């Protein structure tokens, strides 16, 4: 199994620290607004990576942080004239609502920055003792020049960075590159007590403290959007490895930008669509399939036309699922023995996913399977139902369990629910017919249901049914 490592800039064989256990940390949202469809790409692709690792029988501990104190949250609280904690609570709740609709599996842990102040303060104190951090009037900064490997992840040169326009100008810093670990509280801002006075943590500090708390000093996979490589992930490495003197992450994975009209989709540019707005028009499966048709690391141009096209592509899967559902549930147990090579198509799917989670090739393997399986079923009209059962298992394993773009089991559940609702509707019509003394219609409904294997039982309490 190969994974592209941003740190080494090459594909590497995936070797967990403690197999079959895998530790995975993904940067989650700053909860000051509804997340946009570009954020959703990172969340969904991380979910698919996790799902494939589970498919490969790894025990994955998956952690996604929630940044619930930040400048953006404070600004939102001022704008809406409510406490910052109310802002974060509102958007944490909406985050969970939206990821459930997107069929994203819940993380094992969702650590919040405000619940890890002891760990954050401890990390900063350790850095201060090692002379890697300094106090400037209640503001704590990391000494970038004292960390020799700074810039390895992003490939940036510290000398060039000092001259760069992205560096924050701050007279309190010893060096323009130094980044914030702890921010002194301003009037009216939320704060926590610390050895350096009242304040709150820097954004980068939170992730280092929470990842070591829940996953250990060295973790297998750390993932996030490309825009986090610098400075966020670069700073995480510096403070984590500076503090604990051990390698922070073995495999760095980054997701490409979702672009709109040739620009990166972002809230700062105002060219974004929220995930919940897109979900009002398109299914979660269509959104996931849209993302799967491009490799996770590459840029992807957003358009509603492309999502609509994915919706049409899903019809091929759903039609096939409906077909095999009808056959696997009610087909002949006797019939032509199946000689279809399921292993061949499953191998192609797994090979694609094992090659740095190549979802475009994995999707192609699923559609090739459907095309071949449909042809095989047409050419063998008296197939044993075992073929349809195995076809359902294939769809469930690949399109369902790993990619999350179809669900054979869920479709069965929906069909079953719909069947029960239809039977109850017919019972109501039959009851109304009896009240109106239209006994011939009532008897016809009973006899028709009985011919389908559904027997009715009338009593004083009402009519119940049993499916034989």
Structure description:
With 468 residues, this protein is an alpha/beta fold. The protein has 3 domains: 15-280, HUPs (Rossmann fold, 3-Layer(aba) Sandwich); 314-406, Four Helix Bundle (Hemerythrin (Met), subunit A) (Up-down Bundle); 411-467, no CATH class. The chain has 15 helices and 15 strands. The strands form 5 sheets. Strands 4-3-9-10 form a 4-stranded parallel beta sheet, sandwiched between helices. Strands 5-6-7-8 form a 4-stranded antiparallel beta sheet. Strands 12-11-13 form a 3-stranded mixed beta sheet, with helices on one face. β1 and β2 (10-13) form a beta hairpin. 39% of the residues are buried. The mean pLDDT is 91.
Number of helices: 15
- Mass-distribution shape: elongated
The average pLDDT score comes to 91
**What is the correct CATH architecture of the largest domain?**
3-Layer(aba) Sandwich
Q: Going across the major beta sheet, what is the strand order?
A: 4-3-9-10
N-to-C series of helices and strands = EEEHEHHHEEHEEHEHEEEHHEHHHHHHEE
* Integer tally of domains: 3
Q: Can you tag this structure with a few keywords?
A:
3 domains, Rossmann fold, 4-stranded antiparallel beta sheet, Four Helix Bundle (Hemerythrin (Met), subunit A), 468 residues, alpha/beta, elongated
């Amino acid at each position: 199994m190969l994974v592209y490592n941003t740190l080494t800039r090459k594909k590497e064989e995936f070797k967990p620290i403690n197999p079959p256990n895998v530790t995975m940390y993904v940067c989650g949202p700053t909860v000051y607004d509804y997340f946009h469809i570009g954020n959703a790409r990172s969340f969904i692709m991380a979910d698919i990576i996790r799902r494939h690792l589970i498919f490969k029988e790894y025990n994955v501990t998956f952690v996604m942080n929630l940044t619930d104190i930040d400048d953006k949250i404070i600004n939102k609280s001022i704008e809406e004239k409510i406490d910052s904690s109310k802002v974060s609570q509102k958007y944490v709740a909406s985050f969970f609502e939206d990821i459930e609709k997107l069929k994203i599996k819940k993380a094992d842990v969702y650590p919040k920055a405000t619940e890890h102040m002891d760990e954050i303060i401890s990390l900063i104190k350790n850095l201060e003792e090692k002379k890697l951090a300094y106090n400037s009037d209640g503001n704590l900064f990391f000494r970038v020049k004292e960390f020799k490997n700074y810039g390895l992840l992003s490939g940036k040169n510290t000398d060039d960075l000092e001259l760069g326009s992205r560096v924050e100008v701050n007279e309190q810093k010893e060096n323009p590159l130094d980044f914030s670990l702890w921010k002194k509280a301003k009037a009216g801002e939320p704060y926590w007590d610390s050895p350096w006075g009242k304040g709150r943590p820097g954004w980068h500090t939170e992730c280092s403290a929470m990842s070591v708390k829940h996953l250990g000093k060295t973790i297998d996979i750390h993932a996030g959007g490309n825009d986090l490589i610098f400075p966020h992930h670069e700073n995480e490495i510096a403070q984590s490895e500076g503090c604990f003197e051990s390698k922070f992450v073995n495999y760095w994975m980054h997701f490409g930008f979702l672009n709109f009209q040739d620009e990166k989709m972002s809230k700062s540019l105002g060219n974004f669509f929220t995930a919940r707005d897109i979900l009002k028009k398109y299914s979660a499966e269509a959104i996931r399939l849209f993302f799967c048709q491009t490799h996770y690391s590459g840029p992807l141009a957003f358009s509603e036309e492309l999502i609509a096209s994915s919706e049409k592509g899903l019809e091929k899967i759903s039609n096939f699922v409906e077909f095999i559902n009808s056959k696997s549930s009610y087909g002949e147990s006797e019939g032509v023995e199946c000689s279809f090579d399921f292993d061949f198509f499953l191998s192609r799917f797994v090979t694609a996913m094992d090659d740095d989670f190549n979802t475009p090739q994995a999707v192609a393997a699923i559609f090739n399977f459907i095309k071949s399986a449909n042809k095989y079923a047409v050419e063998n009209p008296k197939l044993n139902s075992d073929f349809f059962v195995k076809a359902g298992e294939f769809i469930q394993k690949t399109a369902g369990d790993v990619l999350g773009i179809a669900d054979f089991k869920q479709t069965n559940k929906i069909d079953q629910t719909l069947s029960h609702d239809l039977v109850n509707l017919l019972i109501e019509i039959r009851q109304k017919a009896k009240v109106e003394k239209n006994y011939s219609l009532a008897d016809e409904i009973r006899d028709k249901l009985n011919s389908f294997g559904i027997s009715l039982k009338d009593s004083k309490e009402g009519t119940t049914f049993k499916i034989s």
